[in-house]
Design a protein that fits this description.
This protein has 462 residues and is α+β, with helices and mostly antiparallel strands. The chain contains ten helices and 24 strands. Strand 4 and strand 5 form a beta hairpin. Helix 1 packs antiparallel against helix 10, helix 2 runs antiparallel to helix 4 and helix 9 packs antiparallel against helix 10.
Length: 462
């Protein structure tokens, strides 16, 4: 292992340079093009990563720009690393260009440094270290690159349908030490019937993605239909401006990953709580406003809708209101929920939500979802990954865990999430000023190198 670890240290500058090239590509999913199913950015990021593999003498394959892979080695069994090159929208409030990586000698800042371009590069350099030091291995090592993990997994699903998946592996898209369980995920649109033809509300829209806590919300009101005196009571994160016959009220929050809504400050909830006194009696929006503020606002488990399901292994359902949009006869709320490993199904959640919103003829349409993942924490796969983490980090206290985040580990058998965020790192995934410590990038590469080497040389893992 010493030779492999030294190789990683010797290639630190190139690792950072390669990561910079990836970060500088805006790979937020966009409109599909004939040769780019998720937009030009994800395609460009995939091609750039595959170019690294070609440059370094690996075998590469591009599956119609849906996904691709980089691999080496021989054997009947294979070890897979599944990463993704797409990112969530940048959002607002950055101190630097999110798509131009900043390196201050301690941190690398840019969208994707933590999620998931940085960890993907760390894993790539781990497998490159094994290849270039020439240590003998018994199994194939393959890095799989998806292109729309942050949305609907179309890229990795295409890959699964068109190519045999590895025997076992991990995804570097969560946190250390190792994730043996992932909650299920339900994403969908809750449509509530509200007659707003005569309401003061002209437009109301907020949020960038279902799995992000929205950091900005804005509502436009008809100036002639509101209590203007109440505007003077708007303080804190709330501001307003008069624009002719309209009043524009906005709220600033704090973004966070949808799996940990409590780590953010939902701008939708902040705004709606602050404007209760603005509307005149009889405005139909008041009915929705009261419902939201009593049942949904500032809740993290869906308790107001009765979906705060819980089990002993994974805790309570996580509940995020990621987006909102107003129409003349309805309001749509885009919900992103992470449900426990046992005791509840997606259908149970849908039924309960519609039951709790019957006064609004509530209809919940699922637009995405994943079943829970569970691998025995006593299995050899988990033990090998834990040993690699402990040997390289010195952390002997942390234990395997369950998370609310959903990762590519669910795309193949015998796969778990494994890093790359450490427990004392600041989590800026899906937030402004996303960044990773340079020394943590190096530590991750070394952990992955030991894990891959052991997985590729053990006589029997499964």
């Amino acid at each position: 292992m010493k030779e492999i670890l030294k190789w990683i240290d010797d290639h630190k500058d190139q690792m950072i340079s390669d990561l910079e090239e990836l970060i500088n590509i805006n790979s937020v999913e966009a409109e599909a093009l004939p040769d780019a199913p998720f937009g030009q950015g994800p395609k460009d990021a995939l091609l750039k990563f595959l170019d690294f593999g070609k440059r370094d003498g690996f075998s590469t394959e591009n599956l119609q720009n849906y996904a691709g892979d980089i691999e080496f080695g021989k054997g009947e069994e294979s070890i897979g690393i599944i990463a993704h090159v797409d990112v969530v929208p940048a959002g607002s409030g950055w101190d630097s260009d999110p798509f131009k990586m900043e390196n201050d000698g301690v941190y690398l800042t840019g969208r994707g440094t933590q999620d998931d371009k940085g960890p993907g590069i760390a894993a790539y350099y781990a497998m490159r270290a094994i290849k270039e030091t020439g240590v003998p291995i018994k199994r194939v090592i393959r890095l799989i690159l998806g292109t729309n993990e942050e949305t609907n997994w179309g890229g990795i699903n295409y890959y699964v349908k068109n190519k045999k998946m590895p025997t076992m592996g991990f995804t570097p898209d969560a946190e250390f030490p190792v994730i043996f369980g992932e909650k299920g995920i339900v994403t969908g649109t809750l449509s509530l019937s509200v007659d707003l033809k005569n309401s003061a509300v002209k437009t109301f829209k907020a949020g960038n993605a279902p799995n992000m806590v929205p950091d900005y919300a804005e509502i436009v009101l008809d100036k002639s239909k509101i209590n203007l005196n109440a505007l003077s009571n708007l303080v804190g994160a709330i501001s307003y401006k008069e624009n002719g016959s309209e009043v524009v009220i906005s709220a600033n929050g704090k973004s966070a990953h949808g799996s940990t809504p409590e780590a953010g400050e939902n701008a939708i909830s902040i705004l709606l709580k602050s404007i209760e006194g603005v509307f005149m009696a009889g405005d139909e929006f008041i009915k929705f406003l009261e419902f939201y503020n009593t049942k949904l606002g500032f809740t993290f488990h869906g308790e107001g809708l009765g979906v705060d399901f819980e089990d002993e292994k994974s805790g309570k359902l996580n509940f995020n209101i990621g987006m909102i949009e107003k129409f003349e006869d309805k309001i749509n709320l885009v919900l992103n929920m992470r449900f426990p490993l046992t005791g509840v199904t997606k259908e149970d959640i849908k039924t309960q939500i519609e039951k709790s919103t019957i006064d609004f003829n509530g209809s919940f349409k699922q637009t995405g979802g994943e079943n829970p993942l569970y691998i025995d924490p006593e299995s050899k796969l988990i033990k090998i990954l834990m040993d690699a983490y402990q040997n390289q980090s010195g952390d002997m206290e942390s234990k395997p865990m369950v998370i609310g985040g959903g990762t590519y580990a669910k795309a193949m058998d015998n796969c778990v999430a494994f890093g790359a965020m450490f427990k004392d790192d600041e989590d800026r995934m899906h937030q402004k000023n996303e960044r990773i410590k340079i020394n943590r990038l190096m530590d991750s590469a070394k952990i992955y190198a030991e894990a891959l080497y052991t997985l590729a040389t053990e006589e029997k893992v499964l």
